[in-house]
Amino acid sequence: DAALIGIYRNSMETTAQRSQVVKLSGERCGRGGSDHALRIQVGKQTKECSYRTPVIGRDLEIAATARLLSGTPKALQRSTYLALDLRSGAGARYQLAVYPLQRKAQLRKILTDGSIEYLDIEKEVQGVEGVDRANALRLRAFNLTEGPERGHCRLLAFIGGKLIADVTDEGAGDLSGRAS
């Protein structure tokens, strides 16, 4: 069975803008949409589909309004998450993952070997909405340039405009990617 996810953003108003978002990973990942949205279908036995935006850099902020669509089989809805990734490359990345039916958010650091370091986990998060409801997600990552934390990465995660995580990662050098 497939999960259906809709991503809506003002920057997806034209076909040219939507075509700049390209598939990065995932075996059975379908895309479609409308004149203002990108729709992603996660196919059977596919754990994750990842699409890259044209925005590349070390110090970035990315935002999207995403929905877990009702066409997702009920058996998969609880375990399906919506996510934003920053500093993606060579299999490593920072990720804000939101589980709409669990009202849970996780700020994760995924390393090249696939292991996950949980930087923050929040439950019963206000602003996390259920099936067919808009979830406004925003993730910001930037290197600290002064003081004893110089070279560390500060991560700010927002849901529905509310700050839910503010974390400093001392091991920012583990992630060399620049894709979002």
Describe the SSE topology:
Elements: E1 3-8, H1 15-19, E2 22-25, E3 29-34, E4 37-42, E5 50-52, E6 60-68, H2 74-77, E7 82-89, E8 92-99, E9 104-110, E10 116-122, E11 135-143, E12 153-159, E13 162-169
Antiparallel strand pairs: 1-4, 1-6, 2-5, 3-4, 6-11, 7-8, 8-9, 9-10, 11-12, 12-13
What is the averaged pLDDT score? 84
Strand content: over 45%
Largest sheet: 7 strands, antiparallel
Intertermini distance: 27 Å
**Tally of alpha and pi helices:** 2
Order of helices and strands: EHEEEEEHEEEEEEE
Low-confidence spans: pLDDT under 50, at least 5 residues? none
Task: Count every beta strand, where a strand is a DSSP E run of 2 or more residues.
Answer: 13
* Quaternary structure annotation: single chain
Which overall shape is indicated by the principal axes computed on the Cα atoms? globular
Judged by helices, strands and strand pairing, the structural class is mainly beta
Taking all Cα atoms into account, the compactness measure Rg is 16 Å
Helical content class: under 10%
Largest beta sheet: strand ordering = 3-4-1-6-11-12-13
Give me some keywords for this one.
180 residues, 13 strands, mainly beta, 7-stranded antiparallel sheet, 4-stranded antiparallel sheet
Explain the overall architecture.
The protein has helices spanning 15-19, 74-77, and strands at 3-8, 22-25, 29-34, 37-42, 50-52, 60-68, 82-89, 92-99, 104-110, 116-122, 135-143, 153-159, 162-169. The chain has 180 residues and is mainly beta. The chain has two helices and 13 strands; from the N terminus they run E-H-E-E-E-E-E-H-E-E-E-E-E-E-E. 28% of the residues are buried.
